[in-house]
UniProtKB/TrEMBL annotation:
Species: Streptomyces mobaraensis
Keywords: DNA-binding, Transcription, Transcription regulation
Compositional bias of kind Pro residues: 224-233
Residue ranges constituting the HTH tetR-type domain according to the UniProt record: 8-68
Record protein name field: TetR/AcrR family transcriptional regulator
Gene Ontology molecular function: DNA-binding transcription factor activity; transcription cis-regulatory region binding
DNA-binding region boundaries: 31-50
UniProt xrefs under InterPro entries: ArpA-like, DNA-bd_HTH_TetR-type_CS, Homeodomain-like_sf, HTH-type_TetR-like_transc_reg, HTH_TetR, Tet_transcr_reg_TetR-rel_C_sf
Residue numbers spanned by region Disordered: 212-233
């Protein structure tokens, strides 16, 4: 068990180091030597977990979906709020999570090496389509909305504002751009009663993520015990 835990930690260390290097340099300019130096592991340890630089890059790309935390059900007030929260949490995490930044850099860049970068686009489209379909079943979505089409529109538009924000401000204004996207799109998607209750205020992504992490911690450790009443006399 100790060896297995150590192997998991080593793989994670390599993945995070590679993501940081890919984010800074892009795939073509990144080198295994620099990743090894950043991760402080041996070449043998790296190649035990990843067969090549391409294999490592694909693992970083896949992490965009596999490392994204699901919102606990108690936090999901509506499927349309869940849809908005996915994008706002993503914007917040891009400012704080090096693994996610490396994954996004690899997904959106156009280097000379033909990496398969389609996974996150397909994955996010499927997630959005499922949430929209569930929202439609619950009466949260307008009748004309086709979940798969709307999902691809949102994912594609989000990729566009992500690139623009990175180029213009280094993603300093990504949250504002994401909020603007949802303010323009959601009136054409959500029924008025649901639309009126959507929280798209600045800071929503950070608040929702913090609450999700708190709920997951409570599920793992259990709620704190209720203090015993103080006796009188």
């Amino acid at each position: 068990m100790a060896k297995q835990d150590r192997a998991i930690r080593t793989r994670r260390t390599i993945l995070e180091a590679a993501a940081a290097v890919f984010d800074e340099r892009g795939y073509d300019a990144a080198t295994i030597t620099e990743i090894l130096t950043r991760a402080e592991v041996t070449k043998g340890a790296l190649y035990f977990h990843f067969a090549s630089k391409e294999d490592l890059a694909l693992a970083v790309i896949d992490a965009q979906l596999t490392e994204t935390p699901a919102l606990p059900e108690p936090l999901v007030t509506s499927r349309m709020q869940q849809l908005v929260d996915m994008g706002l949490i993503f914007a917040h995490r891009l400012r704080t999570d090096p693994l996610l930044r490396g994954s996004v850099r690899l997904t959106l860049e156009h280097g000379s090496t033909p990496l398969n970068r389609s996974g996150p686009f397909h994955g996010w489209s499927q997630v959005h389509s499922r949430v929209l379909a569930e929202g439609k079943e619950r009466g949260e979505v307008l009748p004309h909305v086709v979940p798969a089409d709307t999902a691809e529109l949102i994912v594609g538009a989000y990729a566009g504002i992500n690139i623009m924000s990175q180029v213009v401000t280094g993603r300093a204004d990504l949250e504002r751009r994401a909020i603007s996207l949802y303010e323009h799109v959601m009136p054409s998607v959500a029924v008025p009663s649901v639309l009126a209750r959507l929280d798209m205020a600045p800071g929503r992504g950070a608040r929702a993520l913090a609450e999700a992490e708190r709920l997951r911690a409570d599920e793992t450790t259990g709620p704190a015990p209720t203090p015993a009443p103080v006796g009188v006399g």
